């Protein structure tokens, strides 16, 4: 029979109190019994405390929890706002990443949690904050309020990372961010693959001097920032290859060029032969002769800015009756087309600049879905006889 008084574990034990809360204890390396300094709202929280204590023992840095609790009481309070801002300042981040992190901190995390001491941020506090975050819709987009699922996942992941560093720094005993799956999000926007005719019409609807933006994104799977950062020296003289070496982001309307976030982002992408003539024509008619001449220019210090591109692309998409199409969908288009052409997972990773197989396998799955379409057409052929 099981233990009626509590749950035995590989390390420590947990029992449910009459109040409904959970109490955890274990026998330490000193042979004495040690209770958790507080009871827990959930069994998982108590289990996490036991796991953390065992980790301290395994690392040979264990001290009695009562001594640690006393030391924390005597130590000056460390507010999350102060710690998080210092954490951000000390990280070696890309400018765009730093800006995104700072925005999430200042708008979504610190207003609710910033004035709390790190030790006061419990799993219950995190759950309450996260529930309020989930209940807050994102800004309207195209007349539709989105749930902000991606925003929520990113905010939670950032808080969890910061508090994980606080654990490593010895400021808190365990990370209170324990909501399963909170840092993950499912794709809401389905991958939409345009028929070849619609893709041609979309490109034709763009201004002549930036028409190639659509073709490179759709057929080479380039990200928006990668396309806008291309220079003459990033294209093979015969137009058959594009060399991705940098990207551009816009921070407070200013273009910031930087190398890709990962080594996988630095890559050479072969241009499909049928659009090579368009590449060469663009180089001849719209690009300066210098090797550093940008392929696509605008008013923002010579760079075609993302807002101009977004506005122009939206108008072109509406003209072909695809109002929901986003520019990033073109990268998905290139990925699915490559998968349909038989690219392996490794080949897709190389072409798209992915660091893990997961995303590339998603595109292969989308391409495999075409089998149902093929089967339906086979039946239609038979019915027409």
From TrEMBL:
UniProt keyword list: DNA integration, DNA recombination, DNA-binding
Residues annotated as signal peptide: none
SUPFAM superfamilies named among the record's database cross-references: DNA breaking-rejoining enzymes
InterPro entries: CB, DNA_brk_join_enz, Integrase-like_cat_sf, Integrase_catalytic, Integrase_recombinase_N, Integrase_SAM-like_N, Phage_L5_Integrase_N, Tyrosine_recombinase_XerCD
Domain Core-binding (CB): residue ranges: 78-163
All copies of domain Tyr recombinase, residue ranges: 189-376
Residues annotated as transmembrane: none
Pfam assignment, any one: Integrase_N_phage
Keyword flag DNA-binding: yes
Homology family: Belongs to the 'phage' integrase family.
Protein name: Site-specific integrase
Organism of this sequence: Dietzia cercidiphylli
């Amino acid at each position: 029979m099981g233990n009626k008084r509590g749950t035995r574990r590989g390390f420590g034990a947990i029992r449910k109190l009459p109040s409904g809360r959970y109490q955890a204890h274990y026998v330490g390396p000193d042979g004495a019994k040690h209770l958790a300094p507080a009871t827990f709202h959930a069994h998982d929280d108590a289990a996490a405390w036991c796991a953390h204590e065992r980790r301290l023992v395994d690392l040979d840095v264990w001290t009695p929890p009562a001594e640690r609790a006393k030391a924390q009481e005597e130590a000056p309070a460390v507010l999350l706002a102060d710690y998080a801002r210092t954490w951000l300042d000390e990280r070696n981040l890309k400018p765009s990443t730093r800006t995104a992190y700072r925005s999430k901190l200042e708008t979504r995390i610190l207003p609710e949690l910033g004035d709390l001491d790190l030790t006061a941020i419990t799993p219950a506090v995190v759950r309450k904050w996260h529930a309020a975050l989930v209940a807050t819709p994102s800004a309207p987009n195209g007349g539709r309020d989105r749930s902000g699922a991606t925003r929520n996942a990113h905010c939670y992941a950032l808080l969890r990372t910061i508090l994980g560093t606080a654990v490593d720094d010895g400021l808190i005993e365990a990370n209170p961010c324990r909501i399963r799956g909170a840092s993950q999000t499912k794709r809401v926007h389905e991958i939409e693959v345009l028929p070849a005719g619609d893709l041609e019409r979309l490109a034709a609807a763009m201004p002549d001097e930036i028409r190639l933006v659509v073709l490179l994104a759709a057929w080479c799977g380039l990200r928006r920032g990668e396309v806008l950062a291309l220079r003459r020296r990033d294209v093979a003289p015969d137009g058959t290859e594009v060399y991705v070496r940098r990207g551009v982001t816009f921070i407070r309307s200013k273009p910031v060029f930087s190398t890709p976030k990962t080594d996988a982002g630095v890559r050479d992408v072969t241009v499909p032969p049928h659009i090579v003539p368009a590449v060469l024509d663009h180089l001849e008619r719209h690009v300066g002769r210098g090797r550093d001449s940008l392929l696509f220019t605008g008013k923002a210090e010579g760079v075609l800015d993302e807002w101009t591109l977004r506005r122009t692309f939206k108008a072109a998409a509406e003209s072909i009756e695809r109002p929901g199409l986003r520019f990033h969908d073109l990268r998905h288009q290139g990925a699915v087309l490559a998968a349909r052409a038989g690219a392996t997972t490794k080949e897709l990773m190389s072409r798209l600049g992915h660091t893990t197989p997961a995303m590339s396998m998603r595109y292969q799955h989308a391409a495999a879905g075409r089998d149902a379409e093929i089967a339906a057409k086979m039946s239609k052929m038979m019915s027409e006889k």
